[in-house]
Amino acid sequence: MTKATLRLAIVTTHPIQYNAPWFRLLALDHRIEPMVFYTWSQAGKGDKYDPDFGRRIEWDIPLLDGYEHRFVENTASDAGSHHFSGIVNPGLVKEIEDWGADAILVFGWKFRSHLQCLRHFHGKIPVLFRGDSTLLDEQPGMRTSARRLLLRWVYRYIDYALYTGRNNRDYFSIHGLKNEQLIFAPHAIDNDRFGGDEQRYAADALAWRKQLGIGNDDLVLLFAGKLEAKKNPFFLVELAKAVTDRRLKIILVGNGVLEETVRSAAASDPRIVLLDFQNQQKMPIVYRLGDLFVLPSSGPEETWGLAVNEAMACGRPVMVSDRAGCAVDLVHTGDNGLLFDARDNRTAIDFLQKVIGDRGRLATMGKRSKAIIGDYSFRAIIDAIYSILKKTEKK
Question: 6-188+377-392, what's its fold?
Fold first, then answer.
């Protein structure tokens, strides 16, 4: 490979299924030469227990292929991304300097080594930052005022923030970043993987629906995610109580701390089906089990909701609560679905009653979803990064 002009060091804790594909695409771009520095070295040993899912997770898609990376030794006594002192890398700064980075992109500041990187490289090379926090859960008071001061201090070490959407942009703005420092780099998933091979995925989903006893005239609401408080899975149980039409079916896919409670709440309604966690290769089929995807998040910290991207890439209309960070960007009420108040299910009930027998309207909304999500792509992230590096390139 021809050596790229611009070397970008990427600092993040561990490989995840949402970043690995665009890291690979970035490595193929040739305008930028990336090196990913993983700061949670213990995560490089394979699968790990996910306390939210309540099980060990080993992804069935490659997370380390196709791009250069290193696992930097993490010396924390309680290693992990669950607290500030869980990521401690004494050799990180030197490794980045020895590699010869022209710029650095840091994911998140709430780890000791990541904050150290922001402070050390500020003023030496361009410092880019990626985080998706919002103001959706903010409450007025002394703690918020104190946090504002802290965050203004943190973000003074950032040259550019790659914001994911409108809620995230508002967050950065209120903490002192200027308009020229805010570059749109949307939250994205592998649109091609989820949207491709429609014929096969649709056939597999139809066969699965038949196995589950779902008829051709049934309307399936689908939830896919961790069964945890912020996702508000009980919202779907309440919808089933309010909409008694026999054609309504609900599928909840996932595991988590609320699993047994949700099963108990849904046990009396045979229209509600719970399926275990499904790995990445099967998810394009999972989303096609549903006619309408629902993310009823009630917070806190539902900063985006990438399952909505995935469902839209599969051509599904979406119902999303206003407490999900993605809602204002991705959901156009009446066009590709419904944006509803997380505290009030009446709008969702009315919407369901209108579309339950109107498959044509749902199909049109699904096509709009797929069109909208096309702008939320890995290519858009890479182009945003390149635009920054090009204008900051040393002459």
Answer: Rossmann fold (3.40.50)
